[in-house]
Amino acid sequence: MMYLDNNATTAIKPQVKKAVLEAMEHSPLNPSSVHASGRAARKIIDNARAKIAEVFGAGGADIIFTGSGTEANNLAVSGVKGYEVIVSATEHSSVLKAAKNARILPVEENGLVNLAELKKVLDSCHSREGGNPYSRDGEVLAVEDRPVAMDSRLRGNDTSVLVSIMLANNETGVIQPIKEIAALVHSYGGIIHTDAVQAVGKISVDMADLGVDMLSISAHKFGGSQGVGALIMRKGITISPMIVGGGQELSLRAGTENVAAIAGFGSAVENLQENLDKAEEIKILRDYMEERIKSIVSARVFGEGAARLPNTSCFTMPGVKSEVQVIEFDLAGIAVSSGSACSSGKVAASHVLQAMGVAKPEAETAIRISLGINNTKVEIDKFIEVWRGLYNRANQRNAA
Ligand code: PLP
User: Fold this and answer.
1) 342 CB less than 6 Å from ligand 1?
2) Which of 116, 147, 179, 228 has the smallest CB count inside 10 Å?
3) Cβ count near 285 (within 10 Å)
4) Cβ-Cβ contacts under 8 Å for 229 (sequence gap 6 or more)
5) Is 342 an active-site residue?
6) Going edge to edge, which strands form the sheet with 214-218?
7) Which residue has the higher pLDDT, 333 or 130?
8) What integer pLDDT is reported at residue 157 of this predicted model?
Protein backbone atom coordinates (compact mmCIF):
# COMPACT_ATOMS: atom_id res chain seq x y z
CA MET A 1 0.00 0.00 0.00
CA MET A 2 1.27 3.43 -0.96
CA TYR A 3 -0.08 5.77 1.70
CA LEU A 4 -0.70 9.30 0.43
CA ASP A 5 -3.34 10.25 2.98
CA ASN A 6 -1.29 11.60 5.87
CA ASN A 7 -3.67 14.48 6.59
CA ALA A 8 -6.31 11.89 7.50
CA THR A 9 -3.98 10.14 9.92
CA THR A 10 -0.34 9.11 10.14
CA ALA A 11 1.45 5.88 10.98
CA ILE A 12 2.24 5.63 14.66
CA LYS A 13 5.97 6.20 15.19
CA PRO A 14 7.98 3.34 16.74
CA GLN A 15 9.06 5.61 19.62
CA VAL A 16 5.39 6.36 20.29
CA LYS A 17 4.46 2.67 20.35
CA LYS A 18 7.26 2.10 22.85
CA ALA A 19 6.07 4.94 25.08
CA VAL A 20 2.45 3.72 24.95
CA LEU A 21 3.45 0.15 25.78
CA GLU A 22 5.72 1.27 28.58
CA ALA A 23 2.88 3.26 30.13
CA MET A 24 0.54 0.28 29.79
CA GLU A 25 3.08 -1.97 31.43
CA HIS A 26 2.99 0.29 34.46
CA SER A 27 -0.79 -0.02 34.80
CA PRO A 28 -2.91 0.44 36.87
CA LEU A 29 -2.50 4.17 36.29
CA ASN A 30 -5.07 6.66 37.48
CA PRO A 31 -3.51 10.12 37.70
CA SER A 32 -6.19 11.31 40.13
CA SER A 33 -5.18 8.73 42.77
CA VAL A 34 -2.92 9.99 45.54
CA HIS A 35 -1.01 6.72 46.07
CA ALA A 36 2.28 5.82 44.40
CA SER A 37 0.73 4.32 41.29
CA GLY A 38 -1.44 7.42 40.87
CA ARG A 39 1.59 9.63 41.28
CA ALA A 40 3.41 7.64 38.59
CA ALA A 41 0.48 8.25 36.24
CA ARG A 42 0.46 11.95 37.10
CA LYS A 43 4.18 12.10 36.30
CA ILE A 44 3.60 10.62 32.82
CA ILE A 45 0.95 13.23 32.13
CA ASP A 46 3.02 16.09 33.55
CA ASN A 47 5.99 15.05 31.40
CA ALA A 48 3.86 15.06 28.24
CA ARG A 49 2.43 18.44 29.21
CA ALA A 50 5.92 19.85 29.76
CA LYS A 51 7.08 18.62 26.32
CA ILE A 52 4.04 20.16 24.65
CA ALA A 53 4.63 23.47 26.43
CA GLU A 54 8.27 23.48 25.38
CA VAL A 55 7.85 22.45 21.74
CA PHE A 56 4.82 24.64 20.99
CA GLY A 57 6.09 27.80 22.72
CA ALA A 58 3.39 27.46 25.35
CA GLY A 59 5.30 27.98 28.60
CA GLY A 60 2.90 29.09 31.34
CA ALA A 61 -0.17 28.15 29.30
CA ASP A 62 -2.86 25.70 30.41
CA ILE A 63 -2.76 22.46 28.42
CA ILE A 64 -6.02 20.53 28.53
CA PHE A 65 -5.84 16.97 27.22
CA THR A 66 -8.89 16.00 25.19
CA GLY A 67 -9.99 12.91 23.27
CA SER A 68 -9.22 14.40 19.83
CA GLY A 69 -8.62 17.56 17.82
CA THR A 70 -12.37 17.66 17.23
CA GLU A 71 -12.99 17.83 20.96
CA ALA A 72 -10.30 20.51 21.47
CA ASN A 73 -11.97 22.65 18.80
CA ASN A 74 -15.43 22.11 20.30
CA LEU A 75 -14.13 23.05 23.75
CA ALA A 76 -12.55 26.25 22.45
CA VAL A 77 -15.42 27.60 20.41
CA SER A 78 -18.37 26.41 22.45
CA GLY A 79 -16.65 26.80 25.84
CA VAL A 80 -16.47 30.58 25.66
CA LYS A 81 -19.60 32.14 27.08
CA GLY A 82 -21.06 35.47 26.11
CA TYR A 83 -18.71 35.89 23.17
CA GLU A 84 -19.65 36.69 19.62
CA VAL A 85 -17.90 33.99 17.57
CA ILE A 86 -16.40 34.61 14.14
CA VAL A 87 -15.03 31.71 12.08
CA SER A 88 -13.79 31.33 8.53
CA ALA A 89 -15.81 29.49 5.90
CA THR A 90 -13.07 26.90 5.41
CA GLU A 91 -12.77 25.74 9.03
CA HIS A 92 -12.89 22.05 9.83
CA SER A 93 -16.44 20.94 10.58
CA SER A 94 -15.52 20.52 14.27
CA VAL A 95 -15.30 24.33 14.44
CA LEU A 96 -18.11 25.12 12.02
CA LYS A 97 -20.62 22.82 13.70
CA ALA A 98 -19.61 23.73 17.27
CA ALA A 99 -19.71 27.49 16.70
CA LYS A 100 -23.45 27.93 16.69
CA ASN A 101 -24.69 31.27 15.34
CA ALA A 102 -21.14 32.22 14.40
CA ARG A 103 -20.44 34.85 11.80
CA ILE A 104 -18.80 33.17 8.83
CA LEU A 105 -15.93 34.99 7.19
CA PRO A 106 -15.52 34.54 3.46
CA VAL A 107 -12.19 33.50 1.93
CA GLU A 108 -10.46 34.62 -1.25
CA GLU A 109 -10.17 32.41 -4.32
CA ASN A 110 -6.80 31.17 -3.04
CA GLY A 111 -8.33 30.10 0.29
CA LEU A 112 -6.95 32.94 2.40
CA VAL A 113 -9.23 34.69 4.83
CA ASN A 114 -10.29 38.11 3.64
CA LEU A 115 -8.66 40.38 6.23
CA ALA A 116 -10.55 43.48 5.11
CA GLU A 117 -13.77 41.54 5.74
CA LEU A 118 -12.53 40.46 9.18
CA LYS A 119 -11.74 44.06 10.03
CA LYS A 120 -15.20 45.09 8.87
CA VAL A 121 -16.84 42.44 11.04
CA LEU A 122 -14.73 43.44 14.06
CA ASP A 123 -15.63 47.08 13.46
CA SER A 124 -19.30 46.22 13.29
CA CYS A 125 -19.09 44.21 16.54
CA HIS A 126 -17.61 47.23 18.27
CA SER A 127 -19.78 49.87 16.68
CA ARG A 128 -22.73 48.30 18.48
CA GLU A 129 -20.88 48.87 21.73
CA GLY A 130 -19.71 52.40 21.09
CA GLY A 131 -16.58 51.91 19.00
CA ASN A 132 -13.37 49.99 19.45
CA PRO A 133 -11.98 50.93 22.86
CA TYR A 134 -8.60 49.49 21.93
CA SER A 135 -7.97 52.01 19.19
CA ARG A 136 -8.21 55.75 18.74
CA ASP A 137 -8.30 57.56 15.41
CA GLY A 138 -7.50 54.31 13.65
CA GLU A 139 -4.35 53.71 15.74
CA VAL A 140 -4.07 50.70 18.03
CA LEU A 141 -3.60 51.86 21.61
CA ALA A 142 -0.59 50.71 23.63
CA VAL A 143 -1.55 48.26 26.39
CA GLU A 144 -1.05 50.87 29.13
CA ASP A 145 -3.39 53.32 27.35
CA ARG A 146 -6.27 50.89 27.04
CA PRO A 147 -9.32 51.32 29.26
CA VAL A 148 -8.84 49.12 32.32
CA ALA A 149 -12.41 47.88 32.22
CA MET A 150 -11.71 46.22 28.88
CA ASP A 151 -9.36 43.73 30.49
CA SER A 152 -12.37 42.05 32.03
CA ARG A 153 -13.51 41.18 28.52
CA LEU A 154 -10.46 38.99 28.10
CA ARG A 155 -11.61 37.10 31.16
CA GLY A 156 -14.95 36.46 29.57
CA ASN A 157 -16.91 38.73 31.90
CA ASP A 158 -18.41 40.83 29.16
CA THR A 159 -19.53 40.44 25.59
CA SER A 160 -16.47 40.21 23.42
CA VAL A 161 -15.32 38.52 20.28
CA LEU A 162 -13.74 35.11 19.74
CA VAL A 163 -12.22 34.60 16.31
CA SER A 164 -11.40 31.02 15.31
CA ILE A 165 -9.31 30.61 12.18
CA MET A 166 -7.29 27.52 11.35
CA LEU A 167 -3.54 27.72 10.92
CA ALA A 168 -3.59 25.38 7.92
CA ASN A 169 -6.39 23.83 5.95
CA ASN A 170 -6.75 20.05 5.87
CA GLU A 171 -7.93 19.86 2.25
CA THR A 172 -5.81 22.45 0.44
CA GLY A 173 -2.96 22.99 2.92
CA VAL A 174 -3.47 26.76 2.69
CA ILE A 175 -1.73 28.51 5.60
CA GLN A 176 -3.50 31.52 7.10
CA PRO A 177 -1.52 34.58 8.30
CA ILE A 178 -2.46 33.85 11.92
CA LYS A 179 0.14 36.13 13.46
CA GLU A 180 -1.31 39.09 11.58
CA ILE A 181 -4.88 37.99 12.32
CA ALA A 182 -4.09 37.58 16.05
CA ALA A 183 -2.67 41.10 16.22
CA LEU A 184 -5.76 42.48 14.50
CA VAL A 185 -8.16 40.58 16.77
CA HIS A 186 -6.26 41.71 19.87
CA SER A 187 -6.33 45.29 18.72
CA TYR A 188 -10.11 45.01 19.05
CA GLY A 189 -9.88 43.40 22.49
CA GLY A 190 -11.03 40.05 21.15
CA ILE A 191 -9.48 36.63 21.64
CA ILE A 192 -8.26 34.23 18.98
CA HIS A 193 -8.28 30.46 18.71
CA THR A 194 -6.44 28.61 15.97
CA ASP A 195 -6.95 25.02 14.89
CA ALA A 196 -3.35 23.92 14.37
CA VAL A 197 -4.25 20.23 13.95
CA GLN A 198 -2.93 19.99 10.38
CA ALA A 199 -0.04 22.39 10.77
CA VAL A 200 1.82 20.42 13.45
CA GLY A 201 4.70 18.40 12.05
CA LYS A 202 4.56 20.19 8.71
CA ILE A 203 5.47 23.74 9.69
CA SER A 204 6.77 25.07 12.97
CA VAL A 205 3.98 25.95 15.40
CA ASP A 206 4.82 28.33 18.23
CA MET A 207 1.94 29.69 20.26
CA ALA A 208 3.89 32.67 21.64
CA ASP A 209 5.14 33.62 18.20
CA LEU A 210 1.67 33.31 16.65
CA GLY A 211 0.23 35.36 19.51
CA VAL A 212 -2.92 33.27 19.79
CA ASP A 213 -4.94 32.72 22.97
CA MET A 214 -6.02 29.13 22.27
CA LEU A 215 -4.60 26.46 19.98
CA SER A 216 -5.81 22.92 19.16
CA ILE A 217 -3.57 19.97 18.32
CA SER A 218 -4.14 16.25 17.73
CA ALA A 219 -1.58 13.47 18.28
CA HIS A 220 -2.54 11.13 15.43
CA LYS A 221 -1.73 13.72 12.79
CA PHE A 222 1.98 13.55 13.56
CA GLY A 223 2.87 10.02 14.60
CA GLY A 224 0.92 9.77 17.86
CA SER A 225 -2.06 7.55 18.53
CA GLN A 226 -5.71 8.33 18.00
CA GLY A 227 -7.83 9.21 20.99
CA VAL A 228 -5.86 12.15 22.29
CA GLY A 229 -5.58 15.84 21.49
CA ALA A 230 -5.10 19.03 23.44
CA LEU A 231 -6.40 22.54 23.77
CA ILE A 232 -3.61 24.90 24.79
CA MET A 233 -4.88 28.06 26.46
CA ARG A 234 -3.08 31.22 27.42
CA LYS A 235 -3.32 31.77 31.20
CA GLY A 236 -6.26 34.01 32.02
CA ILE A 237 -8.60 32.71 29.34
CA THR A 238 -11.78 31.44 30.94
CA ILE A 239 -13.93 28.79 29.30
CA SER A 240 -16.59 26.34 30.46
CA PRO A 241 -16.27 22.56 30.20
CA MET A 242 -18.29 20.44 27.77
CA ILE A 243 -17.89 17.32 29.88
CA VAL A 244 -18.49 17.67 33.61
CA GLY A 245 -18.34 15.32 36.56
CA GLY A 246 -14.69 15.30 37.56
CA GLY A 247 -11.86 17.65 38.39
CA GLN A 248 -9.46 16.36 35.76
CA GLU A 249 -7.73 18.77 33.37
CA LEU A 250 -8.50 21.85 35.47
CA SER A 251 -12.13 20.70 35.55
CA LEU A 252 -12.36 21.54 31.85
CA ARG A 253 -12.49 17.93 30.67
CA ALA A 254 -13.89 15.57 33.24
CA GLY A 255 -12.99 11.88 32.94
CA THR A 256 -9.92 9.84 33.74
CA GLU A 257 -7.15 10.74 31.33
CA ASN A 258 -5.98 8.32 28.63
CA VAL A 259 -2.59 7.93 30.26
CA ALA A 260 -1.01 5.57 27.70
CA ALA A 261 -2.15 7.67 24.72
CA ILE A 262 -0.90 10.81 26.47
CA ALA A 263 2.49 9.13 27.02
CA GLY A 264 2.55 8.47 23.25
CA PHE A 265 1.48 12.05 22.56
CA GLY A 266 4.48 13.28 24.58
CA SER A 267 6.77 11.00 22.59
CA ALA A 268 5.31 12.16 19.25
CA VAL A 269 5.93 15.77 20.30
CA GLU A 270 9.44 14.92 21.42
CA ASN A 271 10.13 13.43 17.98
CA LEU A 272 8.46 16.19 15.98
CA GLN A 273 11.70 17.66 14.72
CA GLU A 274 12.15 14.57 12.52
CA ASN A 275 9.03 15.64 10.58
CA LEU A 276 10.12 19.26 10.31
CA ASP A 277 13.57 18.22 9.10
CA LYS A 278 11.91 16.37 6.22
CA ALA A 279 9.48 19.14 5.31
CA GLU A 280 11.64 20.65 2.55
CA GLU A 281 12.27 17.24 0.97
CA ILE A 282 8.54 16.52 1.06
CA LYS A 283 7.75 19.90 -0.51
CA ILE A 284 10.15 19.16 -3.38
CA LEU A 285 8.35 15.84 -3.97
CA ARG A 286 4.92 17.54 -3.79
CA ASP A 287 5.96 20.28 -6.23
CA TYR A 288 7.47 17.69 -8.59
CA MET A 289 4.20 15.74 -8.54
CA GLU A 290 2.13 18.84 -9.29
CA GLU A 291 4.39 19.85 -12.18
CA ARG A 292 4.20 16.36 -13.70
CA ILE A 293 0.41 16.24 -13.33
CA LYS A 294 0.04 19.67 -14.92
CA SER A 295 2.24 18.56 -17.82
CA ILE A 296 -0.27 15.77 -18.57
CA VAL A 297 -3.40 17.92 -18.55
CA SER A 298 -4.43 21.34 -17.28
CA ALA A 299 -5.35 20.11 -13.82
CA ARG A 300 -6.13 22.83 -11.32
CA VAL A 301 -4.26 22.91 -8.02
CA PHE A 302 -6.34 24.62 -5.36
CA GLY A 303 -4.72 27.27 -3.16
CA GLU A 304 -1.65 27.25 -5.38
CA GLY A 305 -1.19 31.00 -5.12
CA ALA A 306 -1.06 30.99 -1.33
CA ALA A 307 1.45 29.65 1.19
CA ARG A 308 0.62 25.97 1.68
CA LEU A 309 1.69 23.07 3.87
CA PRO A 310 4.62 21.34 2.17
CA ASN A 311 2.92 17.94 2.03
CA THR A 312 -0.58 18.78 0.79
CA SER A 313 -1.99 19.05 -2.69
CA CYS A 314 -5.62 19.23 -3.74
CA PHE A 315 -6.10 19.07 -7.50
CA THR A 316 -8.55 18.09 -10.19
CA MET A 317 -8.59 15.33 -12.76
CA PRO A 318 -10.73 16.99 -15.43
CA GLY A 319 -13.84 14.98 -16.25
CA VAL A 320 -13.31 12.28 -13.60
CA LYS A 321 -15.28 12.25 -10.36
CA SER A 322 -13.31 12.12 -7.09
CA GLU A 323 -15.02 8.95 -5.87
CA VAL A 324 -14.08 7.13 -9.08
CA GLN A 325 -10.48 8.26 -8.62
CA VAL A 326 -10.35 7.21 -4.96
CA ILE A 327 -11.66 3.73 -5.80
CA GLU A 328 -9.34 3.30 -8.79
CA PHE A 329 -6.33 4.40 -6.76
CA ASP A 330 -7.33 2.04 -3.98
CA LEU A 331 -7.50 -0.82 -6.47
CA ALA A 332 -3.98 0.14 -7.54
CA GLY A 333 -2.85 0.00 -3.88
CA ILE A 334 -2.68 3.77 -3.39
CA ALA A 335 -4.49 5.53 -0.54
CA VAL A 336 -5.69 9.04 -1.39
CA SER A 337 -8.60 11.08 -0.19
CA SER A 338 -11.35 13.04 -1.84
CA GLY A 339 -11.83 16.47 -0.34
CA SER A 340 -13.53 16.44 3.00
CA ALA A 341 -14.57 12.81 2.95
CA CYS A 342 -12.00 11.89 5.58
CA SER A 343 -14.34 12.11 8.55
CA SER A 344 -17.40 10.38 7.20
CA GLY A 345 -16.18 7.91 4.61
CA LYS A 346 -18.76 9.35 2.28
CA VAL A 347 -17.96 11.69 -0.55
CA ALA A 348 -19.66 15.05 -0.18
CA ALA A 349 -18.97 18.25 -2.08
CA SER A 350 -16.16 20.05 -0.32
CA HIS A 351 -17.32 23.12 1.64
CA VAL A 352 -13.72 24.36 1.47
CA LEU A 353 -13.59 24.40 -2.32
CA GLN A 354 -17.07 25.85 -2.52
CA ALA A 355 -16.01 28.67 -0.17
CA MET A 356 -13.10 29.32 -2.52
CA GLY A 357 -15.61 29.88 -5.29
CA VAL A 358 -14.97 26.60 -7.12
CA ALA A 359 -17.99 25.45 -9.09
CA LYS A 360 -19.47 22.16 -7.85
CA PRO A 361 -18.76 20.13 -11.02
CA GLU A 362 -15.06 21.04 -10.84
CA ALA A 363 -14.87 20.54 -7.05
CA GLU A 364 -16.30 17.06 -7.59
CA THR A 365 -13.21 16.07 -9.59
CA ALA A 366 -10.69 16.98 -6.86
CA ILE A 367 -8.63 14.61 -4.78
CA ARG A 368 -6.23 15.35 -1.95
CA ILE A 369 -2.75 13.95 -1.75
CA SER A 370 -1.02 14.37 1.60
CA LEU A 371 2.53 13.11 1.80
CA GLY A 372 4.22 11.77 4.90
CA ILE A 373 7.76 11.48 6.15
CA ASN A 374 8.27 8.08 4.52
CA ASN A 375 7.07 8.71 0.96
CA THR A 376 9.67 8.41 -1.80
CA LYS A 377 10.19 9.70 -5.34
CA VAL A 378 9.72 6.14 -6.64
CA GLU A 379 6.24 6.15 -5.09
CA ILE A 380 5.41 9.54 -6.57
CA ASP A 381 6.51 8.37 -10.03
CA LYS A 382 4.26 5.33 -9.66
CA PHE A 383 1.38 7.54 -8.50
CA ILE A 384 1.81 9.78 -11.56
CA GLU A 385 1.78 6.78 -13.89
CA VAL A 386 -1.42 5.45 -12.30
CA TRP A 387 -2.94 8.95 -12.47
CA ARG A 388 -2.06 9.24 -16.17
CA GLY A 389 -3.51 5.79 -16.96
CA LEU A 390 -6.70 6.54 -15.07
CA TYR A 391 -7.12 9.90 -16.76
CA ASN A 392 -6.57 8.44 -20.24
CA ARG A 393 -8.96 5.52 -19.68
CA ALA A 394 -11.67 7.72 -18.19
CA ASN A 395 -11.47 10.20 -21.02
CA GLN A 396 -11.53 7.46 -23.67
CA ARG A 397 -14.68 6.14 -21.97
CA ASN A 398 -16.18 9.64 -21.89
CA ALA A 399 -15.38 10.16 -25.57
CA ALA A 400 -16.88 6.79 -26.64
N1 PLP B 1 -9.02 20.13 12.49
C2 PLP B 1 -8.49 19.82 11.31
C3 PLP B 1 -7.97 20.93 10.45
C4 PLP B 1 -8.43 18.50 10.88
O5 PLP B 1 -7.92 18.21 9.68
C6 PLP B 1 -8.95 17.48 11.71
C7 PLP B 1 -8.96 16.07 11.26
O8 PLP B 1 -8.88 15.76 10.12
C9 PLP B 1 -9.47 17.85 12.95
C10 PLP B 1 -9.49 19.17 13.31
C11 PLP B 1 -10.02 16.83 13.88
O12 PLP B 1 -9.00 16.11 14.51
P13 PLP B 1 -9.30 14.67 15.14
O14 PLP B 1 -9.23 13.70 14.01
O15 PLP B 1 -8.20 14.47 16.13
O16 PLP B 1 -10.62 14.74 15.77
Assistant:
1) yes
2) 116
3) 19
4) 65, 66, 67, 68, 69, 70, 71, 72, 197, 216, 217, 218, 219
5) yes
6) 62-66, 229-233, 214-218, 191-195, 160-164, 83-88, 103-105
7) 333
8) 40
In this prediction, residue 134 carries a pLDDT of 52
pLDDT at residue 131 tops 60: no
pLDDT value at position 399?
Answer: 82
Q: How many domains does the chain have?
A: 2
In sequence order, the 6+-apart residues with CB closer than 8 A to the CB of 194 are: 164, 165, 166, 167, 176, 178, 182, 210, 212, 214, 215, 216
Give the tens place of pLDDT for each residue, 19-51.
Answer: 999 999 999 999 999 999 999 999 999 999 999
On whether the CB atoms of residues 84 and 159 are closer than 8 A, the answer is yes
Task: Compute, in angstroms, the gap from residue 143 CA to the centroid of ligand 1.
Answer: 35
pLDDT computed for residue 152 by the predictor: 38
Atom of ligand 1 nearest to the CA of 91: 3
Ligand 1 neighbourhood includes 170 CB (under 6 angstroms): yes
**What per-residue confidence (pLDDT) applies to 75?**
97
For the domain that residue 342 is a member of, what is the CATH number? 3.90.1150.10
Of 272, 301, 333, the domain-final residue: 272
Of 227, 245, 272, which marks where a domain is finished? Answer: 272
- Together in a domain, 157 and 46: yes
Q: Are residues 79 and 210 in the same domain?
A: yes
Question: Separation of 236 CA from ligand 1 center, angstroms?
Answer: 26
Give me the chain's average pLDDT, please.
91
Q: 3-state DSSP call for residue 81?
A: coil
pLDDT at 400: 81
Please, what is the end-to-end C-alpha distance for the chain in angstroms? 32
Residue 199 Cα to ligand 1 midpoint, Å, equals 11
Query: Both 162 and 29 in a single domain?
Result: yes
Containing structural domain, residue 366: 2-8+275-399
Residue 232 shares a structural domain with residue 301? no
Pairwise pLDDT comparison (48 vs 144), residue with the higher score = 48
Q: Is 127 exposed, middle or buried (0-12, 13-18, 19+ CB in 10 A)?
A: exposed
